Amino acid sequence: MDLKERIQEDLRTALRQQDAERLSVLRLIRAAIRDAEIEQQRELDDAGVVAVLTKAARQRQESILAYREGGREDLAGAEERELRIIQSYLPRQLDEAELRALVRRAIEELGARGPADLGKVMKHLMAQVRGQADGRVVQALVREALEK
Fold first, then answer.
1. Where in the chain is the domain with CATH 1.10.10.410?
2. H helices of 70-132, where?
3. CATH code of the domain occupying 96-147
4. pLDDT tens digits, the chain, 148 residues: what are they?
5. Sequence-ordered list of residues with C-beta below 8 angstroms from that of 1, at least 6 positions apart, any chain
6. What is the CATH number of domain 3-87?
């Protein structure tokens, strides 16, 4: 069962169980997937669905920060619950130690010497970690490693 089918099946289950919060989030996810398919004029594969889910998760994380800065813990809590539901469909995220090891290995494999090689290393790494790590975090780690 692919990711899109799993989301659809979980939506049906949430509907039967009358889980309003999960149902709402799954409907938003389904709509975002449908919008991406219309925009790209093709049906999304699992990688495309993961990209949509990653974007939705990032939006929730930014909302949580904004709500906390504004003193709205109630709204931040709701966003956190939505984020947990979205993250349940994403692949396991690599932790910083695993990313650092991948960065070191990529730099060694490519023979990167300095900041000028950032693009080459990023291209190589993002092909490996797509969906498992935030590109901004990977870029920061690569930049840090290349500046040493």
1. 96-147
2. 73-87, 96-110, 118-129
3. 1.10.10.410
4. 799 999 999 999 999 999 999 999 999 999 999 999 999 999 999 989 999 999 999 999 999 999 999 999 999 999 999 999 999 999 888 888 999 999 999 988 888 888 888 888 899 998 888 878 888 889 999 999 888 7
5. 9
6. 1.10.1510.10
Between the CA of residue 147 and those of 4, 107, 117, 136, what are the distances in Å?
Answer: 41, 12, 11, 17
What is the value of pTM for the model shown?
A: 0.78
In the chain, residues under CATH classification 1.10.1510.10 are 3-87
DSSP string, 49-78: HHHHHHHHHHHHHHHHHHHHHTT-HHHHHH
